[in-house]
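hi! just following up on the protien thing from before. the input was this:
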Amino acid sequence: MRFAGGNRFDDPLGEFRVLYAGESRLAAFMETLAPLRPSLADITGLSTAAGARIRPTNRISVDWRRARRIARLRLVRGRRWLDLHAPETCEVLRGELADVLLQLGMADFDVSGARGPSRELTQQIARRAFSWGYAGIAYRSRFDDTLNCWAIFEGDHYEPVGRPNPIRRDNPDLHTAARRFGLTVF
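and the predicted 3d structure came back as:
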């Protein structure tokens, strides 16, 4: 399926697509800009002649901004959402995914695993949620616990509010996220 990929809650079988959204523009930028951060290898490999460490600065290019839009949407009422904020959800997933967790070498499962870096695991969570009839997944950002995000499964689960807008260089949420990640906006 076109546009079904390898992101956090994408379907590993490619049968449905996922729209990722943040409850705020800052949440959307934090999730979207994280892959632009300097790699750990880049951070550890740089130092001055005197041995002082230098933190590399990656750029958010004009082309990156021009290739994307920011939009608002409204979730349709009456839909069911798998809530990864709820401890009860994680306990159900712990039992349902026990075989997967053991195959991945995990001794246990909690909310950190539910939104963590293991794409194999998070995609299995999405697969289960979709098969159980959920419209998507509500979760907190891995990069800031105060930011709420949504993985919205393909379907009529949201309504656009207005038109998508270009990402302007002077967007304050873009700059806040960039500053947190050590990125420069061009």
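The chain has a mean pLDDT of 91.
The first strand starts at residue 18 and ends at 22.
cheers
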